[in-house]
Amino acid sequence: MTNATENAAGNAARHGFQAEVRELLRLMIHSLYSHREIFLRELISNASDANDKLRFVALAQPALLADEPELKIWIDYDKDAATLTIRDNGIGMTRDEAVAHLGTIAKSGTAEFFQRLTGDQQKDSALIGQFGVGFYSAFIVADEVEVLSRKAGEPASAGVRWASKADGEFTVEDLERADRGTAVVLHLKDDAKEFADPWRLRSLVTRYSDHIGFPVLMRKEGEAGLDWEPVNQAKALWTRPRSEIGDEEYQEFYRHVAHDFAEPLAWSHNKVEGKREYTSLLYVPGRAPFDLWQRDATRGLKLYVRRVFIMDDAVQFLPLYLRFIRGIVDSNDLPLNVSRELLQRDAEVEAMRAALTRRVLDMLAKLAKDEPEKYAAFWKEFGNVIKEGIAEDAGNRERILPLLRFASTHDEGNEPKTALADYVARMKEGQAKIYYVIAETVDAARGSPYIEKLRERGVEVLLMGDRVDEWVMGQVREFDGKQFKDAARGDLDLGALADPADAGTPTDEAAKQNEGLLKRIKDALGERVAEVRVSTRLTDSPACLVLAEHDLSSQLRKILAATGQTPPEGKPVFELNLAHPLVQRLDTTAAGSDFDELALLLFDQARLAESGSIANPGEFVRRLNRLLGQLMR
User: Fold this and answer.
1) What's domain 405-497's architecture?
2) What's the pTM value of the predicted model, to 2 decimals?
3) Rounded Cα–Cα distance for residues 191 and 287 (Å)
4) Which of 39, 45, 70, 129 gets the highest tally of CB atoms within 10 A of its CB?
């Protein structure tokens, strides 16, 4: 391998690392000792990306490859000097790019990453892996790192040397002569000299980087000259038959494409032939990235056309609710000069998007069926994202519904374990609807007054406590022929599930018998409620507020208000449990301030149960204290 530089041309400048880089370096050096060999995988992966980018740019500028058309990666070592060099002849960097790319972290989610650090080396090691370690992993085994680079298309005298000892600073200087591409020179620590051993290096390349689509070359053993030989298959993994690829190879390729050294939960490798031809390799990560909820976060698949890398983060091939999926798609039909704008209008891409979306949903369905424990882990990380698909992807709604998981009155604890198919299988004889209730939290939903009668009848209720649930459930009407019913809305007609003991006192008859009480309470509450009526859903609570079927819930009102929107006004129905002692006491209280105070107290209690807040907490407390004082006299 030729030297990447001959002489320094001066213009040296010293820079300080971005604060996040200094912290990341400190953590990696001290937290990843047991995973230190990952540095080689990361540096080879970076070299592969650099070659991919040059090959893509050269589609429009073939002259960039004229002097050295074959793209390769070289690994060289010097046992005596304790150095290791990883070089590529890819896109390279200018001086400004070296400062920007090697001195700062631009990845979204960085701030949250540092907020979640615990100081526990084992836990922080997992977080670093989730964030992606990249170039800075070199400092796990090196006490000094040099980067020698020249941008493709620039003259040989336009090279740059970047160097740092991970001491908070780095230097940058111009080079009089540099080869195209980038060479990373590691000055190995005393306890890391094993990485200057050819057998150790070859085994690591075979283990971690055999799937790289460019030849990784090392000097032939016993040869004094520069006679190089490939030490990897140099064949893109997705182009090989599935029968020839083991699980470990698939997992290593995931780490390469996702920059995550945790294992994926599942993957799907598929080749489509016929009207359109493409290959896809899709992965379900084991953990959510830090930037999952950031709208400007990078997402999408790596796009190749006839094995030529075209772009990272091609968002056009999967819908937004599947933004966590990692992998590649390699098309034989798209043009090599395809752009992001063309992808948005291409009918071929639309057809591929529909097929890839179904493939991901089928992969998740298989995971849920065959490995429920893994699927439970998946749901914990990505469940709320999948829920978005109910509203965003009507065409696949019937595929998404079976993937949903809910907490339920059938299960102890608040973990979402129940699938809709499980619920339907457990439905009571005569039950026609799937009942659910939404609250601020699952705990609040479990204790909701709206489901008291259902629980008394032994009817299972799905418990929902995520902000997205209100929006999601507004998009679905039924599952397996059973309609969904919000227990907090409209009439709760139990039909065949009603208690035969209630037959003698139907609601209409009870309303007539208590018409005077209902009117007095309506007068006391005034415009706060649309109606006061006898409840069919309460057994323990004295009262509750019931929304009409299409009224906005308090949760949705809060979300709209937070976005600066003014939600339309709506009045709830005030339902009374006539068997409750407080309501019976109210019935015997003469009209006047005491009656009004007690009616307003019941209203505020119902509002607390419905929304978790009331308009005037101070007045509620004073009213409660006055009534308690009267009882203590």
Assistant:
1) 3-Layer(aba) Sandwich (3.40)
2) 0.76
3) 32
4) 39
Q: Are 321 and 392 in contact (CB under 8 A)?
A: yes
Place of tokens 């009480």: 517
Q: Structure tokens of 298?
A: 């990078």
Distance between CA atoms of 87 and 445, rounded to whole angstroms? 59
Provide CB contacts within 8 A for 323, sequence distance 6+: 292, 297, 299, 300, 315, 385
How many CB atoms are closer than 10 A to CB 599? 24
pLDDT of the residue at 289: 82
Nearest to 125 by CA among 238, 35, 239: 35
Q: What CA–CA distance (Å, rounded) separates 406 from 174?
A: 60
- b/e 151-186 (16+ beta carbons within 10 angstroms → b): bbebeeebbbbbbbebeeebebbbbebbbbbbbbbb
Q: How many residues are present in the chain?
A: 633
The burial class, CB within 10 Å (0-12 / 13-18 / 19+), for 527 is exposed
Give the β-pairing of 433-438 and 462-464.
parallel
| Candidates 3.40.630.30, 3.30.230.80, 3.90.1150.10, 3.60.20.20; CATH matching 239-372 | 3.30.230.80
Residue 373 tokens read as 């424990």
Question: Which pair of tokens denotes residue 22?
Answer: 């200094």
- Residue pLDDT, tens place only, 340-385: 777 777 888 999 999 999 999 999 999 999 999 999 999 999 999 9
CA angle 337, 342, 345 (to 5 degrees): 150
How far is CA 438 from each of CA 388, 443, 485, 554, rounded to the nearest angstrom? 17, 10, 11, 11
